[in-house]
Amino acid sequence: MTRMRTFLKQNAVFLSLSLILFIVLGLVLLFVPKGELHLWLCDRHAPARDIFYRYYTRIAEWFPYVICVLVLLFGRVGDGVMASACMIVSSLTTQLFKYLVAAPRPLTWFAENMPDVQLPLVEGVRMNYYLSFPSGHTTSFFALAFVLSVIVTKSLYANNSNRICSVAVQLLLFIAAALGAYSRIYLSQHFALDVFAGIGIGLSVSLLCYAVFAHYSEQNWYNYHFFAKKMK
Fold it and tell me: Do 200 and 192 form a contact (C-beta atoms < 8 A)?
């Protein structure tokens, strides 16, 4: 119980902001029709934003796995294993729901339900047509951001670093994840509901992985460094 209270205290900023976003988005989804909400959220196009979101969204396709490898090699082995497990489990969970639900993507949905609407698309982005729910990119963005928040803030607290640094790191990670989630709507690759589910899966899987691996955090294998001469 004490360990969990410490964990929640150390990661309060990221968790609080993510929970607020999750709740607010959930409430909006209850009262605003699917199509109307998507049009309102994606109708903010400008050349600079098109370029930014076109490339930023692709970070979720490779960056999380690079980070997991780097943490595994240059950080504590346990942290690397936890991050890798988080990304693998969240990805598999997302893919399972995608094929079970088999929901149409915005481009297909609007063609079938609101054919007079022309979605604002970004040149050079390969559009998808099916397997919309949930958003895998959003899951990856939030899962990775939360895992990094856990690893970095724990290190900062262990080294008695300025707590302002911890707050700043969590805030930046949340913004990075939120921008990644919004990029999926901006590019009309996903609906807000898909993003909502992606956030939930990313956070839930991350919390589950932390709960599992926290029991091993004091063991030698968890604290082993590949490039250290001895166990920490």
Answer: no
Question: Does residue 126 belong to any structural domain of this protein?
Answer: yes
Q: Which domain holds residue 56?
A: 10-216
Average pLDDT on 130-157 reads: 93
Evaluate whether residue 224 is within a structural domain: no
Asked if residue 41 belongs to a domain, the reply is yes
pLDDT in tens, 144-177: 999 999 998 888 877 766 778 889 999 999 999 9
Indicate which CATH number applies to the domain containing 147. 1.20.144
Q: Does residue 23 form part of some domain?
A: yes
Residue pair 70/218 in contact (Cβ under 8 Å)? The answer is no
Q: Whole-angstrom Cα distance, residue 209 to residue 115?
A: 43
∠102-38-123 over CA atoms, to 5°? Answer: 85
Q: What is the pLDDT of residue 228?
A: 66
Measured CA to CA in angstroms, residue 43 lies from 17, 130, 185, 198 at distances of 24, 21, 10, 21
Check whether 127 has a pLDDT greater than 90.
yes
pLDDT at 231: 43
Angle, alpha carbons 121-143-6 (nearest 5°): 145
What residue spans of the chain are helical by DSSP H?
A: 2-10, 12-31, 34-42, 47-56, 59-74, 77-101, 106-113, 136-158, 163-186, 192-213
Tally of structural domains, the chain? 1
Average pLDDT over residues 197-203: 97
Range in 25-34, 85-94, 156-165, 220-229 with the lowest mean pLDDT: 156-165
- The structure tokens listed for 32 are 């605003």
Asked if 184 and 135 count as a contact pair (C-beta separation under 8 A), the reply is yes
